[in-house]
From TrEMBL:
SUPFAM superfamilies: NAD(P)-binding Rossmann-fold domains. GO terms for biological process: fatty acid elongation. This is SDR family oxidoreductase. PANTHER family: 3-OXOACYL-[ACYL-CARRIER-PROTEIN] REDUCTASE, CHLOROPLASTIC, SHORT-CHAIN DEHYDROGENASES/REDUCTASES FAMILY MEMBER. Belongs to the short-chain dehydrogenases/reductases (SDR) family. Residues 3-179 form the Ketoreductase domain. SMART domains: PKS_KR (SM00822). InterPro entries: KR_dom, NAD(P)-bd_dom_sf, SDR_fam. GO terms for molecular function: oxidoreductase activity, acting on the CH-OH group of donors, NAD or NADP as acceptor.
Amino acid sequence: MARNVVVTGGGTGIGRTVARRFAAAGERVVIVGRRREVLVRAAAELGPGVTPLVCDLADPDAVEAALETLPARIDVLVNNAGSRETAMGPGPHALLARWRGDFERNVMTAVLLTESVRDRLTPGEGRVVTVSSIAALRGAGSYGAAKAALHAWNHFLAAQLGPSGITANIVAPGTVAGTEFFGPRLDEAEVSRRAGRTLLGRIGDPDDVAAAVYFLASPEAGYITGEILNCNGGELLGR
């Protein structure tokens, strides 16, 4: 039987590739994000089993309103939505905006939705997979701190969901091409530099991360919970 899968940040990059992986397996997929045009275009390209849902996941009112559209039973929830706050000016106000923005966009987007749909997660089979970052482990200011907060929250979530047979895990990618995160910063020289500090000699692509997410969402991963799966080609170890 086809599963109901919800992928946040599913309009581009890693989220879109994750949604494509599930859709190709015949699952029913809802992709969630803030930009209507991006979501509608992605859903049309990914196929008839993919439904777009516009929602600002950092807004509790918007999340509450989205519950009417989300499936009554959710087999897989992929918390992928997130971004880096770009307010970089001097002074304490800019500092607060940067830290608060990173926390809201990377932590609250996952927490608000997951807590709102906890009662819809399928007992005995439900999977929650949250996409973090190597920044949580290597350190990267407010962005890294926000991603690290997801790790602590996931440990708590796994303990809460475990008695119902529902797993909760993290995938922490390293540098990944083909996303909006780096933009023009990921030029040829930067790709070469980052590839050189991995053990495999290359940076990742969205398919690498989607494969890790898909595994943790599979029936075969039913005895894995509360874990962090690093998906970085050895970048965390460095060379």
